[in-house]
Amino acid sequence: MRLLLVEDEIDIQSFLQRSLEEAGYQVEAASDGKTAERIAIEGPFDILIVDLGLPDQDGITLILKLRQLGVSAPVLILSARRSVDDRVRGLEQGGDDYLTKPFALAELLARLRNLLKRNSPATSESTRLRVLDLELDLLRREATRSGQVLQLTPQEFVLLEYLCRNAGRVVTRSMILDKVWGMRIQPDTNVVDVHIYRLRGKVDGQGQKPLIRTLRGVGYVLKDR
Amino acid sequence: MSSKTAKPILRSAAWRISLRATLAFACGTMLVFIFLHRFVASDIQRRGDAWLSGEVEVLGDVAEQTTKNALYDRVVGEVAELVSKEVPNKDPSVGASNDSVFFLQTNGDGSLMLWVGAGSGVPNLKAIQADRIVPGSPSDLRVPGFGVPFRVASTRINDGSYIYLGLSERDELRVLRSLWLRFVLLWLLLVFLGFSIVFFTTKRMLSHVQRMTEAASRIGHTDLSARVPIAARNDEVGNLALTLNHMLDRIEISMHQLHTITGSLAHDLRSPLTAIRGKLEMSLSSGPQSEPSEQIVSAIEELDRLTDFLNMSLDVAEAKADALRLNRVPVDLDELLRVMIDLYEPSMSEKGLQIRLHSGGPLILEADAALIHRMIANLFDNEMKHLPSACTVNLRLSVEDNAASLLLEDDGPGFDPEVFPHLFERRIKGNKSTGHGLGLAFVDAVARAHGGTVAAFNCKEGGARLAVNLPLLAISAGQVVASRKMTITSSL
């Protein structure tokens, strides 16, 4: 996967490049709009990360220019503004995504995966999800662990489904709130944790290998190994 | 616009102003006319009197010098007839039969000697004798049978007889009446014309003010680029529009500065925060997987809290300055509350709290979904942080006067009386509070940005009550002021 990273803050650029490379991306980095344009035309990229506050031009202008030059890869916009600009919203509707700074790496990676998935030809949706001995029947909304049916509420099923779809990858609290409850909020209480504890109580029964792991300071992961 | 023009014209300021101006104008012109009328009347009378006095002298001379023979009556009578043809102000339409002048001569004993005029002259003589008319300046005489009084002058001649010359005031009155009639017609015309001019001028001027009011009320929280229309002329109203626009320019500039400041502040803080967080996360993942460093974890958590605080204080600051940008979409408050309760219920029951929703079904309002989500989350967080266990939170959702009313009641200890008066201010929190003290300030800011209100009470039977009011439809700033006034009066 070839990725073009356009970010003028050297600190952020270097740690992003390192972590993206660790995640398996082939990263080219640019610090300003001019360089980004040049690199983008040279080689085809699968995905772009563009910071809005570039020294020589506005990130949106750059994206529109690249689109005119025939660059059709999806773009993940990084923004330091909280209130989302209408133009960003327009791009978001056009298939791109945005993330406000500061962000969790896990969330950045998840959004990149989403963008790539959206852009790749649709694979036939499976009606069953399987992670180790955990199995989810998406049609009957039923989960089993080692053949034993788990008594889950509908909301817990959605939460488990989300964890299963991201099995082996870290999901943050705000990602869970966004995808499972459909809201971008940052509660300063432990609401998500309690849901996870309850789900864990049902999924990881006594004598079974614990599947749901808490990564403190980062989020949660459903183990697939 | 339509509601303003539909307002009855009788209640408009233009109507009141033109009514008063016209009244003053009408009274003034009427007074001037009455004065003129009197002047003209007295002048006409003076002229009439001068003519009478002159003619009566002439007739006296003629009567004196004419010998008393058989022709005396004819001579004096002819002269009197001639005199009567020279009557001043005579109406030419009246025919030859002349009843506007009479000539009367009496003997020394008062018996009728010679009469020239309409009728027998007897009633005139009786009236003269009754009024005791004496030689000298002319005076009024009312004669039975004549509708109009006469002006009579008299003189005494040497043979002891008296000569009276009477001039009917009919012609004088006719002139005055026609003057009066013409004036009233002209006066009515002038008053009507004046009223129309004043009315339409003020109406035009005030309609410009009205347009400015409407334009100003449209200049909402978010759109500061609009300006009030400028009058073509450089008068007071034009100046008002110019001044308003200058003021709007200044507000827009300071608002722009605020946006720039919050924007660059956000940017300047966020970039290093992003870098720090990223580095911490990387050192976390590169360390031994099973044993994450406690310091790094808590540093990341602190950083997230700091970010949250930064976001919220910027939002509160922008909302307080009415500069929060809203992205309004239809939001079902009922559904949102159910999802929120679903999210919060496990942690609440963990703390021994109960939460119940009393709602009449879907309630859709036009609002910024993300802000409303965070507002509700703040309300719930607030309850969770301040309620001791075994308490119940009751949520009541209803529609009142085109506004969604959300009532949060709990049976906890209520608001701390010390912080109660400053509940919605920034950085206010109770002694035992662990939050950053922005929660309710944020709730208030979001409600206000949507044209709504938040009110807090401590119930008599214990417990706190928060009432959030959000209009169902997006309304302009002017209407917000009006609706706030209404809530004040209705709460009184």
Overview of the structural elements:
The complex is a heterodimer of chains A (225) and B (492). Chain A is 40% helix and 22% strand. With 225 residues, chain A is an alpha/beta fold. In chain A, helix 2 (33-42) packs parallel to helix 3. Chain A is elongated, with a radius of gyration of 19 Å. The model of chain A has no long low-confidence stretch (mean pLDDT 86). Chain B has eleven helices and twelve strands. Chain B has helices at 2-5, 13-65, 72-85, 122-131, 170-218, 236-286, 294-320, 333-350, 369-386, 439-449, 477-491; strands at 101-106, 112-116, 139-141, 150-156, 162-168, 328-332, 354-359, 364-368, 392-400, 403-410, 453-458, 464-471. In chain B, the strands form three sheets. In chain B, strands 2-1-5-4-3 form a five-stranded antiparallel beta sheet. A five-stranded mixed beta sheet of chain B has the order 7-9-10-12-11, with helices on one face. In chain B, strands 6-8 form a two-stranded antiparallel ribbon. In chain B, strand 1 and strand 2 (112-116) form a beta hairpin. Chain B starts with a helix and ends with a helix. Classes of the chains: A alpha/beta (225), B alpha+beta (492). Chains A and B meet through helix 1 and helix 8 of A and helix 6, helix 7, helix 8 and helix 9 of B.
